[in-house]
TrEMBL record:
This is Arginyl-tRNA synthetase catalytic core domain-containing protein. Residues 53-318 form the Arginyl-tRNA synthetase catalytic core domain. One of its GO terms (biological process) is arginyl-tRNA aminoacylation. InterPro entries: Arg-tRNA-ligase (IPR001278), Arg-tRNA-synth_N_sf (IPR036695), ArgRS_core (IPR035684), Rossmann-like_a/b/a_fold (IPR014729). SUPFAM superfamilies: Nucleotidylyl transferase. One of its GO terms (molecular function) is ATP binding. One of its GO terms (cellular component) is cytoplasm. PANTHER family: ARGININE--TRNA LIGASE, CYTOPLASMIC (PTHR11956:SF5), ARGINYL-TRNA SYNTHETASE (PTHR11956).
Length: 348
């Protein structure tokens, strides 16, 4: 609302009524007690718009507001640890529709999917796939509770079995073996994700892989930038509220001063063991996107990422030296129920 709306005795209803009445295509305005505003358009205005619609056909509504500015929209970006499912579709449709609207308004839009193919979840998936492969040889191996039990891994394991036989049972190099299963799973699942999204006519211009961001060491550039601005320091965080006392131990980590930007606590940037955190790699990814020369970045996130917004926007502001260079749009989570009970749709 305008600041003047906060002035004492300001009549907002009267302001709205006068503004709408000044529009030459409005026939009648009725503001009811419940707060609803009923607006009646003049018939000749509606007829002229209908004529315009039929005259311009498929070009109706197109404009050049964007004037060729480049926008990157990243959406879906579900982890490649399993197929996408209906819970991902709300963000998929929102991102694709927004991209289409911006394209019809003169912007040059890149639709992007970020593939998180690095880190502990991918290692666990590779181990899970290898166990499914072992089971095809009647090896009595059991998946642990933190591994991926989905039937889709059985299908992928069968592909490896058909093409490689027992090659990987004989391979002594554990690093080579598990890396193969990780890469094979990601490649297969990303192909399936592309295929599933194409069924609803959603296609991406770019699939960017976290592993490529790591290999190209974009994190080093972000690290240098944050150090120069004194936004990193070594510290120990308090025990998280949801952690058991016996499961937690204080450890010194490299922390990002996210409280400078409205966050409730400073956030780990580098783990005690020297590994970069997910947040750090995500910052490196946004640095890489910025370096491509976009005028604006837009991310579509699920509501479970709301707490992540302030730290990510602050990092991108530092990288770009522009306020609101990163726009984050949130869509609500999808919940499925059967017989009145909430269905679990997670991959583990």
């Amino acid at each position: 609302m305008l600041k003047q709306n906060l002035k004492k005795n300001y009549d907002l209803k009267d302001h709205i009524f006068k503004f709408l009445s000044s529009l030459n295509y409005i026939e009648k305005i009725d503001i009811v007690k419940a707060g609803f505003i009923n607006v009646v358009f003049k018939k000749d205005f509606l007829i002229s718009k209908l004529i315009d619609l039929f005259s311009n056909n498929e070009q109706y509504g197109f404009n050049n507001i964007g004037n060729g500015k480049k926008i990157n929209i990243e959406f879906v970006s579900a982890n490649p640890t399993g197929p996408i499912h209906v819970a991902h579709m709300r963000g998929a449709v929102l991102g694709d529709v927004l991209a289409s609207i911006l394209e019809s308004s003169g912007f040059k839009v890149t639709r992007e999917y970020y593939v998180n193919d690095a880190g502990s979840q991918i290692r666990v998936m590779g181990q899970s796939l290898y166990k499914r492969y072992q089971q095809l040889f009647d090896n009595q191996v059991v998946l642990t509770p933190n591994e991926y039990p989905g039937e889709y891994l059985k299908n992928i394991a069968k592909i490896i079995y058909d093409q490689d036989g027992d090659k990987w049972l004989k391979t002594k190099n554990e690093i080579e073996k598990f890396k193969y299963f990780e890469i094979f799973a990601v490649k297969n699942l990303v192909a399936r994700i592309k295929e599933d999204l194409s069924l609803i006519n959603i296609n991406f211009d770019i699939f960017t892989f976290e592993s490529e961001i790591v290999v190209n060491k974009f994190i080093n550039k972000v690290f240098t930038l944050l150090k120069e601005k004194n936004l990193l320091y070594e510290g120990v965080l308090d025990k998280p509220m949801n952690e058991e006392e016996s499961d937690w131990e204080p450890r010194k980590q490299l922390l990002y001063r996210s409280t400078n930007f409205g966050d409730d606590v400073d956030r780990p940037f580098q783990k005690a063991n020297g590994e970069w955190t997910y947040f750090a790699n995500d910052a490196a990814y946004h640095y890489e996107k910025y370096s491509r020369g976009y005028d604006q970045l837009i991310n579509i996130w699920g509501a479970d990422h709301i707490g992540y917004i302030s730290r990510m926007k602050s990092i991108v502001e530092i990288i770009s030296n522009k306020k609101n260079y990163l726009d984050i749009q949130i869509c609500q989570m999808v919940h499925l129920r059967k017989n009145g009970k909430l269905l679990k749709i997670s991959k583990r």
